[in-house]
Design a protein that fits this description.
two-stranded antiparallel sheet, disordered N terminus
Length: about 260
């Protein structure tokens, strides 16, 4: 019996339709593997999102990061300074009530500068005919001028916190909009709307907004807290200044009257 050649069919027709060729069936897993490789090619960590971002988005992130560091430096510095000023105000008010300043006592920090200004004005003997009210106004004006200068130095940097708190979210939003525009451009070029194409660009864009919020939220909270603390310090010093100026004016007016009588 002669051997019959074996014939292999490359196409088999079934009622549901034709089965695709073997080469296409083998290529299908490669397509899926390619999609997985595309999804895994993007590092979704924070550092990876920064490094893979568009140059414009990357510049926005760097700007916001620098602003955040500057804000924290100002926050720490002003927190320490306001705390010292608060203690100085308490010491100043306590010394005024205890009548410990005219006797030669000296308050620390801002209080010391205020007392020095009052002492200079009190020792000014250029005019002995001023009334008690005029002396009080002169002494109080000298002390409040010194307090204003000290508070102005204490408030330095708060404007930067306010600026970052109001502008940082919008700067981050600009980076987000720019990143989303790039994502849609990538979709148009690749004709592929899968998450593997869209997700990395959107994640980078949203990361810019997150950095903007990280910079803005502490800046706003710290600005409100520090501004409230500085107002409290100014109020406490103001009360002490009013009481001390009255006391110094009484003593100065009495001293002037005695010197006028002695001259006559």
């Amino acid at each position: 019996m002669a051997d019959t050649p074996l014939t292999v069919a490359t196409d088999v027709t079934v009622p549901g339709g034709a089965i695709p060729p073997l080469a296409d069936a083998v290529a299908a897993p490669d397509v899926l593997a390619g999609g997985d490789a595309l999804a895994g090619a993007h590092d979704m960590s924070m550092l990876g999102l920064f490094l893979q971002a568009d140059p414009i988005v990357k510049g926005v992130m760097i700007l916001l990061f620098i602003a955040s560091i500057a804000c924290w430096a100002i926050i720490l510095d002003k927190t320490v300074r306001v705390s010292r000023a608060r203690r100085a105000a308490q010491a100043f008010a306590g010394a005024v009530k205890a009548d410990a300043l005219i006797a030669g006592g000296q308050a620390p920090g801002v209080g010391g500068a205020i007392i020095a200004a009052a002492s200079r004005e009190w020792r000014d003997r250029s005019d002995f005919v001023d009334s008690r009210g005029e002396w009080r106004d002169r002494i109080e004006r000298a002390m409040r001028s010194t307090l204003t200068d000290e508070l102005r130095r204490l408030e330095g940097g708060l404007a930067f916190l306010a600026t970052v708190g109001s502008a940082a979210p919008f700067i981050g939003l600009f980076g987000t909009v720019w990143g989303i525009m790039n994502s849609f451009t990538s979709i148009a070029k690749s004709n592929d709307t899968s998450l593997a194409v869209v997700a990395p660009g959107i994640a980078e864009a949203l990361f810019a907004t997150a950095i903007g919020l990280v910079a803005a939220i502490p800046a706003v909270i710290a600005y409100n807290k520090l501004a409230t603390g500085i107002r409290a310090v100014a109020h406490r010093f103001g009360m002490g200044i009013g009481e001390l100026s009255n006391r110094l004016a009484r003593e100065r007016a009495g001293s002037s009257a005695r010197q006028v009588e002695a001259a006559e």
